[in-house]
Amino acid sequence: MFSMVNQVSLNMMSVSIAEAIREAARTLRQAGVPDARREAGSLLQHVIDCDRTFVITHAEDLITLEAQQSLRDCVARRAEGEPLQYITGRQAFFGLDFEVTKSVLIPRPESELLVETALHLVDKGRAAPSICDVGTGSGCIAVALLHENQRVSAVGIDLSIEAIQVARRNALRHCVSARISFVVADCLSALGAGKPVFDLMVSNPPYVAVSALNGLQREVRDHEPRLALSAGIDGLTIIRRLLLDSGVLVKAGGHLLIEIGFDQRAAVERLIDRTTWKFLGIHKDLQGIPRVVALQKTCS
After folding, report:
1. Cα separation of 293 and 243, whole Å?
2. For a 10 Å CB count at each end of the chain, is N or C smaller?
3. Domains of the chain: which residue ranges?
4. Do domains 5-80 and 90-297 have the same CATH topology?
5. Edge-to-edge strand order for the sheet containing 277-284?
6. What CATH class does 90-297 carry?
7. Cα(174)–Cα(176) distance, rounded to whole angstroms?
8. May I ask the CATH architecture of the domain 5-80?
9. How confident is the model at residue 201 (pLDDT cuts 50, 70, 90)?
10. Tens digits of per-residue pLDDT, 232-245?
């Protein structure tokens, strides 16, 4: 596992783990990267394929020249603003390790609220609930739901073929691929308007307004897929489509959960068709920001 760590190297040009982290942190700090030392440590762990405990307990071990150069290459990418997750190719979400690439949005802690809310509804619902994850991206939401509840089956939809490929690999990684299918489609367009088939529909759609893009962190603005970030002038284009099109696909008494932006609560509430949906409320994230809209399909 630690083939790139050389504890007995006599090459005086080699540096220790501690020295490599100090050098990397100094470069990142000069580039304005927050938490520079923590990120330097994470990059070194990636390069020499080890965990944080190993780094701490083997601080004086020497790393090879090859590892030193690999670390410097990774640090240069991070200093230019590329997110740590795209460099390492992974991100933790809901206690699971997910593959991420530049084709998918990086899973965020606030989206875990979407999973928590969905699990609560699923636990109270039908014996074998069917879920649709619209804009599945890395598949983190659907895969986390399936991992937590063995009764659930799911469909993951995304417009990006590359994103679907990542989601498939994550489903395999966490042993839930037998219970999920993936569809390449623009929102719900491929599902038609037949008999309602889903007990629950979830979505973390693109919701950043075009006018707000320039104000995003450089890591987000310059590196994450624009398709997964922004939708229309006010950021509500996909949310409007979901509210309009999902009613015919969700069973009576079923639910729709949508993640929204920090300033979109009032606008989204106005878009809800109260003849189709019962408004259950908006759940706040750990920062107290209204984050997840919860709706229930009316029985009429």
Report:
1. 11
2. C
3. 5-80, 90-297
4. no
5. 180-184, 153-158, 130-134, 198-203, 250-259, 290-297, 277-284
6. alpha beta
7. 6
8. Orthogonal Bundle (1.10)
9. very high
10. 899 999 999 999 99
